[in-house]
Amino acid sequence: MSSTLFRTKKVEQSILDTEEPEHALKKSLSALDLTVFGVGVIIGTGIFVLTGTVAKDNAGPATALAFVAAGVACALAALCYAEFASTVPVAGSAYTFSYASLGELPAWIIGWDLVLEFALGTAVVAVGWSGYIQSLMENAGWTMPAGLGSREGADAFGFDILAAALVLVLTGILVLGMKLSARITSLVVAIKVTVVLVVIIAGAFLIKGENYDPFIPKEQPVEAGASLDSPLIQLMFGWAPSNFGVMGIFTAASVVFFAFIGFDVVATAAEETKNPQRDMPRGILGSLAICTTLYVLVSIVVTGMQHYSELSVDAPLADAFKATGHPWFAGFISFGAAVGLTTVCMILLLGQTRVFFAMSRDGLLPRFFSRVHPRFKTPHRPTILLGVIIAILAGFTPLTELAALVNIGTLFAFVVVAIGVIILRKSRPDLPRAFRTPWVPVIPILSVCASLWLMINLPAETWVRFAIWMAAGFLVYFLYGRTHSRLARRDAGEEQPSVGGGTP
After folding, report:
1. How confident is the model over 393-415, as pLDDT tens digits?
2. HSE on the CB side for 359, CA within 13 Å?
3. CA proximity to 52, closest of 266, 430, 291, 317
4. Element (H, E) at 195
5. pTM of the entire structure?
6. Cβ-count burial of 104 within 10 angstroms (0-12 exposed, 13-18 middle, 19+ buried)?
């Protein structure tokens, strides 16, 4: 039993399976496309919301250092992802990496978890996007009909038609082809980055030096006390950090860390990249470096425009411009946030469908879902199925119910990938590695420690939900996946390994 649960899939076999005509994805992405995907999914509500929260409650103007610390923690994981993605350029990201290093059961666990995390993440972003759009509509004098607007706080039956429509439109775009998705993402990311740059450049002329004094607050001002009850922090983490000083910077880093999550989704597109050995590390590390730089600059500008103790928790960037006599920028920033969330939603949906597709191609889920569209060469079946499910979820579920689920699965994936790098270095030192994580095993071990520390600080409710979903995953695996996987069928002599790209 143990030998079958931890049987690994050879890297060479994983690559051969991607060449089967009926299950092969079209290679169309470049390093620039991957970088744009990374920037598109990382820059979301985090840069528009968390900056004010952590500046007021933890680090003051030193929030910039908190973003640097969080960026370094993410870089540890990104270095591990870059090695795996360039060595095993196959759809599925952490699922595929763990299948090659840890075995089938660990691979199933992480794949099962990522499917849930990406699905819920897509629904959360879609509902948030709907809220921004409805706010902009109300500013223009338009109101959604009763029962078709946001479900937030609603007691009566209703359906958020905007959130559902966004998911369905993005589903259609993903079915039509990866290159089309990349072009649309590039356009939207250009708008989003332009908004961020306008904030940085315009805000730089409104900085007052006295707002940086003290740069690292030693104690919390009385005025900031109310913000410790921020619903955002309570929902996401279950606790309200309050310590200042140097430790406040690291506490703030644990909060803003979640504004960086998303670079790992880039790895799910490895199989659709023209030159993954060269371009995957560039896309993963490049997008992380760009976003870290933008986050640091925004935090420096905002805390310089307005004293950290007076920053807004809900909309710090927009309200900082209002406080300095420039209210026009508030609407501009809200527009940028609304536009930017579309790419976050699209790329999360992309990541989920690729993980689902990879698990199906390996037989752990029904192989019906692993056949690509004959014309567009996209996994249209899982994309349509998951898109419809998520659209329904986003339409009927209030944001408070969705937002309570945090990214514990992503941190779990970070741990698995880091451990996998160490194991694969020992078990397969002969593999050609276009990119090598430096200082192995030190870097992977540090990545594991950083991720585990953040997981420990998550609320108990999150661990309970995580355990329930994992229990359901074990049930599905032992009832279906363990006996239907392609490795199990090959062990039983029912299927021969792929040779030369043909269908077995």
Report:
1. 888 866 544 444 556 777 888 89
2. 32
3. 317
4. helix 178-204
5. 0.82
6. buried
